[in-house]
Amino acid sequence: MKTIKQVLGGDLRQYTMVLALAVLIIVFNVISGGRMLTPSNFQNLLSGNAYVLILALGMLMVIVIGQIDLSVGSVAGFSGMVMALAARDYNLPWWLAVLLALAIGAVVGAWNGFFVAKLGIPGFITTLGSWMMFRGLVIWISQSISVPAPEELRFFGAGYLPEWGPTFTGMNNSTLVLGLIGIVCFAYFQLKNHKRQGEIAGGVQDPMWAVVTRIVLVSALIGYFTWLYGSGRAGTSFPIPGLILLILIIIYHTLTQRTTFGRHVYAVGGNKNAAALSGVNVSRTYFLTFMNMSMLAAVAGILFVGRATAAGPADGTSWEMDAIASVFIGGAAVSGGVGTIIATMVGGLVMAVLNNGLMLMGVGSDKTQVIKGLVLLAAVAFDVYNKSAGRPSIIGRLFGSGEEKKEG
Amino acid sequence: MMRKRKLFLSMLMAASLSVFTLAGCGGSREGSSSSTESATNTAEETADETDAAEEEGDAAEETAAGEGFEADATIGISLPWLGTQNWKEAQDMFTEQLEAEGFTALVQAADQKVPQQQQQIESMIQNGAKVIVVGPVDGTQLGSVLEEAKDAGVYVLGYDRLIENTDAVDGVVQFGSVRTGELQGQALLDGLKAEKGDGPYNIELFGGGPADPNAPNFFTGAMSVLQPEIDAGNLVVVSGQTDFTQCATEDWDNSKAQKRMDSLLAGNYSDKQIDGVLSPNDGIGRAIITACEDAGQDIPVVTGLDAENESVEWVWQGKQYCTVAKPTQDLVAKTVEIIKSLQAGEGMPAYEVKTNNGKIDVPIYELDPVVVTKDNAQEVFANDPDRLELLK
Amino acid sequence: MASNSLILEMRGITKEFPGVKALDNVTLKVDNDSIHSICGENGAGKSTLMKVLSGVYPYGTYEGSIFFQGQEMRFKNIKESESAGIVIIHQELTMIPELSVTENIFMGNEITNNGLINWHEERRRTVDLLEKVGLNIDPDTLIKHMGVGQQQLVEIAKALSKNVKLLILDEPTSALNEDDSANLLELMRGLKKDGITCIMISHKLNEIAAISDAVTVIRDGQTVESYEVVAGQVDEDKIIRSMVGRSIENRYPEHESHPGDIIFEVSNWCVEDAEVSGKMLCKNSSFNVRAGEIVGFAGLMGAGRTELMRSLFGRNFGIYKSGTIKIHGKEVELTSVESAIEHGIAYVPEDRKTLGLNLLDSIRKTIVAADLKKILSGWLLNPDKELAAAEEYRKALRIKTASVDVGVNTLSGGNQQKVVLSKWMFTEPDVLILDEPTRGIDVGAKYEIYKLIHELADQGKAVIMVSSELPELLGVVDRIYTIFEGTITGELPASEADQESLMKRMTVTSAA
Fold first, then answer.
1. Looking at the structure, do residues B269 and B334 belong to the same domain, yes or no?
2. Which domain holds residue A275?
3. What is the reported pTM?
4. Measured by CB atoms within 10 angstroms of the end CB, which terminus of chain C is less buried, N or C?
5. Residue A191 covered by a domain
6. Domain assignment present for B40
7. Number of domains, chain B
8. pLDDT (tens digit, 9 = 90+) per residue, A19-71?
9. Å from A38 to nearest chain B CA?
């Protein structure tokens, strides 16, 4: 048991959801007769859910800071609509239209941020207002009629990595390269981390064999998914929205874990007053977090319009709820201060796989909703139960890592 | 106790990990082979042929008969939602009739959400559907997924609403929407003459959900009948709101229509009687009638659409002047007929009309709706025992 | 002391958490109608023992047995222990600020008629209860409008409403001023006469000495000793010795300061209350601190000590009206906490849990939190530098923890305070403001903190220490300012001051 623990390393709690995700995928794969783990289904899974996962990135930060943003769906819809209209009615080149959409995201974010940070109005109320406003504006400017989007955007919303090079690899070479980069990076960081642990006083060094086993296992996993994505029908490969998501995940993981701003977000969410007395500019942190959220909403809107080939007046309806659900399934706390990008992505994928698997099984949307609702409650209840009782999580118990709680 | 649980959990963990790797291998093998599966291949060829045919022109297309597919193939039906009677009926009828013909029916509804419909269509492709019938939530926003379907060799049929902004659609089955509007407009005129004496008549206009491409067509059709009368002064739109965007009802939402009617009455009819209202469907029509009753007005002549049970009753009682039946039965039957033709390898049947959807000219299989008033209700529903039951 | 029959006997209580034995065969015997004090360092196991007694840890999760009024008790939850007559009043008050006294007293035990609350009866009983605890206020007063001392009394009234026989008070006076504390102790004596036994957990030895009939000392989860005493004649040093397991000759370490130049000077500082316009929190306050000097601020709660310090620390409190700050002789404008930190000021707030710490963070993240620039490598935070810094302070301040990666919420009060101090020492300040740095921490840890303060002064830093405990100020600092209602009312060298002379200046506005 200790062996597995050493191989996995790190905080074991975070593996609970990963395990749940793996079990879900396997179970659905078996029930659906192997239709889950196919190249095209996994391509769909990514390009069909990228927009929600991108929203969840920003939402995680908003929730960690102890706020909520209800306007993201409307803002996504609004940015996408402005982009489509600008391209159609004012003949803006597609890239200028995209920049315009991002700028709109930034302006809306500044608007939300102003009310929250400068006037101290709770995010819930501020963004409830924005939610209505921008929903109305989408319908207003579009006259409630869908607007076709520039062709080029298809690439961002539903495109694939290009095909090139030799055919003997038996798969899409771009995907192959991406997978190899992934494996090399993982191995590099593992070894670097291992070396560092050895050099720093007070650090605990994992044994070398555990590190190597970890690298081999993860490489096998990355390799498998590389192959899964790369070996689909000719012309398909790892989807572009997936790549955009991947890049954003790396950026936001680093932003939250390794930058001053990220630290400030957690500090404000954990204890606003203590953060203020530690020299954190609380209102600036609020402002930037909300601004960032709306910009990501614009990105999500652009990707969605790209995939849908048109911007519709109802785009973004209830997207905020999917994003919020992902964040909470990923273990974030409603009271703020807790949650990570990676866990949120896993939470979002649990929802996506659940949705996808149930559809593959032909389960109606009514029952799917019921099941998703139950999963959300179960995941959060599980988390709260663990935290409130001060118990180690099931996984923690599994490895006998009793979290010791001192009495105060 | 504690130790036992630990052991159990660890075994579970180990087991699931190994299953994961195993299942991973199994799944992937299927994944890779699916692209070389013969059925898919032929389907792709069919698609290619259709492509070629399209380029050659209309005449060629009709003869572009493929090889067909198995008689028990999966047919995907993606409906926008089940919130109104006609969609619920469509769900039941499709399931029933497709199963009766020996197909495997996969009927799903998308809760009026575009992304959900996109994902449902994708999962239908995954499930190996040969034909996907789509009643779109928003006809313009399915481009990418329908192209995926086309690439996978799946036939795509639009149901009830036009599918726009993509070339990946083989045909659309619907009631002529402009025609429906004309019938509604004419029925309103007839009703006013029959029930409200001599003109000029005070009327108001309502449109459907703007995201539904049919809604503006209904309105255009109705206005083609009403506008000359308005210009001649026989009809007076007291509020002056005659533009579709002014009259549209977001999401076909009855409550929004009722609110609009409330404010129209409050603002314009404090000293007038309202004689007639153009309503695009039954739900909105009933909302309008309710608003008029609340405002103390005599019930005006109100049109409708869909022949929902409650409205059929109201027509029978004389509360609602008329509804327009678009028998779901006919629409489903026509769709199933096309599917059977495709299955037999006979290609798409002949059609009369084509409509430009922004990308290509799409073949339209148009059916005629029927106006139902109190006078002809029993006649129209003679073959519909459920609705006949209401007329008692 | 007449030896009454026992009201409570806890036998051989052992409570284990994963990896830790919090209580090890603890025995506690409490006489009827007595006041029994439990002493021990933070983390000794006092709170755990009380949680076992009150059913927070239900029967079955601990070993040993509890006898209450001669019967063995097996509480499954707090509700059961309360219905048996055992009520615990926690250190952190648990009342709802937006509700009235009546509503709070009957919270969870509402008097109802057919499902509707009987307001009349509740109010009548509240008046009775308030009279018993000597509180003369309207039962409809909202809790948020009351002082901490009054709130404490309402808590006791609430306990009385539940027919309490054994009342447990956990650090009841930690948030109270002297008057309120004395008042509370008097009330406890009164309760004793009415047949209510009290268990008091406290760090304040003078209070224990004043009212206890018996004392039990717990150390490291074990009963060290337990004996009857005569109120007013308790040997405090004996208690301290058994609490810390060593004798402390002097509660305050020896220290000789070598003050240098004046490096921090405040002139005519005026601050207005942000909520009540026109009300001044600080009136023309002027003072100075030399390098290497420790300056104390004495004042009662609400006198404006904290308000003054926080307004100096980047105008973090109230509305700045006028006044100047000079650091190293140069006038500076500190309009934000960031700029205050940049100018070398550090402020350790009085309330560790709500202002000093993010309880969700680990020790290492907390220590670097006030100066993240120091651990930056380029754009990114460098975890190696962070770990190195955290380890450095862990060793230097002897923070008791297995690893710097554990959460600060797992630490005892004294160790938490050391982490907060580390956080501010990490910013390498010239001026260090400590607001009640030893509140709620045990004697041993206090001693270490005093020594740390002395070391900081020896490094040439200007240290300002705010404290409600006059002996502490007299024992640690070099010079004392007294403050009353926002005005500095006096300045005395510690060598010339005594408690009486300070108290005089803390309660009367000097006419001059």
1. no
2. 2-159+239-398
3. 0.76
4. C
5. no
6. no
7. 2
8. 889 999 999 999 988 889 999 899 989 999 999 999 999 999 999 999 999 99
9. 4
